[in-house]
Amino acid sequence: AGNYRTQLWDKQSESFLPSTPGLGMHVEVKDPDGKVILSRQYGSEGRFTFTSHTPGEHQICLHSNSTRMALFAGGKLRVHLDIQVGEHTNNYPEIAAKDKLTELQLRARQLLDQVEQIQKEQNYQRVRRG
Fold first, then answer.
1. CB 47 within 8 A of CB 83
2. How many other CB atoms are found less than 10 A from the CB of residue 4?
3. HEC letters along 42-109
4. β-strands 59-64, 36-42: how paired?
5. What's the burial of 24, exposed, middle or buried (CB within 10 Å: 0-12/13-18/19+)?
6. CA–CA separation, 10 vs 16, rounded Å?
7. Distance between CA 98 and CA 60 in Å, rounded?
8. Backbone torsions φ then ψ of 87, nearest 5 degrees
9. Which residues touch 65 (CB under 8 Å, ≥6 apart)?
10. For FRET with 130, which of 32, 39, 48, 111 sits at 20 to 30 Å CA-CA?
11. What integer pLDDT is reported at residue 130 of this predicted model?
12. For all residues of the chain together, what is the average pLDDT?
């Protein structure tokens, strides 16, 4: 598991300020065999978890999806990263549940939109036939 937060360089105050909410970070984790075991888009701060079945050195890459913001900030982005390793970090069910919930919410929204569209079409057909 890992927690991170980002700060953007502010030219005027010449210091790092808490990051803009609009900043997106992409987190990618590779196992010792180079296999990608996590690849997800997060915000300017976040918590990511992954389960590895291969012992050894893992590679964690965090990169900003916003080059425009980085350039605007004078190209400086500070990332605070806190990594926890081992069984004690195991709050996976809760995190997985949160991830699944957002996926479910998105799917439910899509399905509701489809239902609405079908109803509109049926009403339209009824009007035309009537």
1. no
2. 19
3. ECCEEEECCCCCCCCCCEEEEEECCHHHHHHCCCCEEEEEEECCCHHHCCHHHHHHHHHHHHHHHHHH
4. unpaired
5. middle
6. 6
7. 22
8. -65, -35
9. 24, 25, 26, 41
10. 111
11. 62
12. 79
Residue labelled with tokens 């079409």: 121
Rounded CA separation 128/130 (Å): 6
**What single letter denotes the amino acid at residue 126?**
R
Distance separating alpha carbons of residues 16 and 6, to the nearest angstrom? 9
Where in the chain are the domains? 2-87
DSSP 12-35: TTTEEEEPPTT--EEEEEE-TTS-
Q: Convert the pLDDT of each residue in 60-78 to its tens digit.
A: 999 887 655 555 556 678 8
Q: Compute φ and ψ for 52, nearest 5 degrees.
A: -115, 140
